[in-house]
Amino acid sequence: MKQLGISIIGTDTDVGKTFVTGLLGAMAVDDGFAVGMVKPVSSSAVPFPECVTMDEDNYNVGLESKDATHLMRAAGIPESRRHEVNPYAIAGDFSPRLAAELAGIEIDYDSVVQHTLDVVNRYDLTFVEGAGGITTPLYGDKTFTDFMKDIKLPAVVVADGRLGSINRAILTCEYAKMHGIEVKAIIVNDTTAVDPFLLKTNVADMERYTGIPVLAVVPPYQGPDIHKVQLGWARSFIDSKKLWNTVIGL
């Protein structure tokens, strides 16, 4: 089959992009796809002494992106592919741009774009997750908007369901459209157990004002940290075949 990819964009930080991306990756593997994952630049990295597979030119040396680790575990990706998943893991609870500047790291933007496209060409289906919201600074004058535009993949927006989520979803989808990023679907990740009536009306209004389907509403997960358990649970809320058909035409 043709190698395909999906960009995952958040309406804000802490809306659960990584959790949702992990669920989608696990579902894709379960559906028979060879799956790639890319978290191109991740800040908030933590010491990771076991990370010994990297060469001296890779900024992952001694640091682990917890987001990348979650994606790898969800899709069954071995440690030997960590650099493929996450070329830059940088310490500091800042935007990737600021974290890199404070660490004295120069991100090669063009190489990050090419690396991502190379990964997409290796697998049936690759998920590319941004950091924070769509306008999060990446490097210099580049934001994740530029990055998502340059990799030219259809996108899924992950939104929360709280008060204000309609505004965030509309602004994110409209901003993406203005910059040539095609948003095909929205997934609402209800991380805070929003009142059911508010959640239902927020979801309806997201669809009404964006014209983009909300293909899943994911409730808070309270089960064990076992990916097979999460996969079975997720299938109660996400129709993966409908998602693949809507976003990538499968």
TrEMBL record:
<feature type="binding site">
    <location>
        <position position="67"/>
    </location>
    <ligand>
        <name>ATP</name>
    </ligand>
</feature>
<comment type="subunit">
    <text>Homodimer.</text>
</comment>
<comment type="function">
    <text>Catalyzes a mechanistically unusual reaction, the ATP-dependent insertion of CO2 between the N7 and N8 nitrogen atoms of 7,8-diaminopelargonic acid (DAPA, also called 7,8-diammoniononanoate) to form a ureido ring.</text>
</comment>
<keyword id="KW-0067">ATP-binding</keyword>
<protein>
    <recommendedName>
        <fullName>ATP-dependent dethiobiotin synthetase BioD</fullName>
        <ecNumber>6.3.3.3</ecNumber>
    </recommendedName>
</protein>
<keyword id="KW-0093">Biotin biosynthesis</keyword>
<feature type="binding site">
    <location>
        <position position="43"/>
    </location>
    <ligand>
        <name>substrate</name>
    </ligand>
</feature>
<dbReference type="InterPro" id="IPR004472">
    <property type="entry name" value="DTB_synth_BioD"/>
</dbReference>
<feature type="binding site">
    <location>
        <position position="18"/>
    </location>
    <ligand>
        <name>Mg(2+)</name>
    </ligand>
</feature>
<keyword id="KW-0479">Metal-binding</keyword>
<feature type="binding site">
    <location>
        <position position="67"/>
    </location>
    <ligand>
        <name>Mg(2+)</name>
    </ligand>
</feature>
<dbReference type="Pfam" id="PF13500">
    <property type="entry name" value="AAA_26"/>
</dbReference>
<feature type="binding site">
    <location>
        <begin position="14"/>
        <end position="19"/>
    </location>
    <ligand>
        <name>ATP</name>
    </ligand>
</feature>
<keyword id="KW-0436">Ligase</keyword>
<feature type="active site">
    <location>
        <position position="39"/>
    </location>
</feature>
<dbReference type="InterPro" id="IPR027417">
    <property type="entry name" value="P-loop_NTPase"/>
</dbReference>
<feature type="binding site">
    <location>
        <begin position="189"/>
        <end position="190"/>
    </location>
    <ligand>
        <name>ATP</name>
    </ligand>
</feature>
<keyword id="KW-0460">Magnesium</keyword>
<feature type="binding site">
    <location>
        <begin position="129"/>
        <end position="132"/>
    </location>
    <ligand>
        <name>ATP</name>
    </ligand>
</feature>
<keyword id="KW-0547">Nucleotide-binding</keyword>
<comment type="similarity">
    <text>Belongs to the dethiobiotin synthetase family.</text>
</comment>
<keyword id="KW-0963">Cytoplasm</keyword>
<feature type="binding site">
    <location>
        <position position="129"/>
    </location>
    <ligand>
        <name>Mg(2+)</name>
    </ligand>
</feature>
<comment type="pathway">
    <text>Cofactor biosynthesis; biotin biosynthesis; biotin from 7,8-diaminononanoate: step 1/2.</text>
</comment>
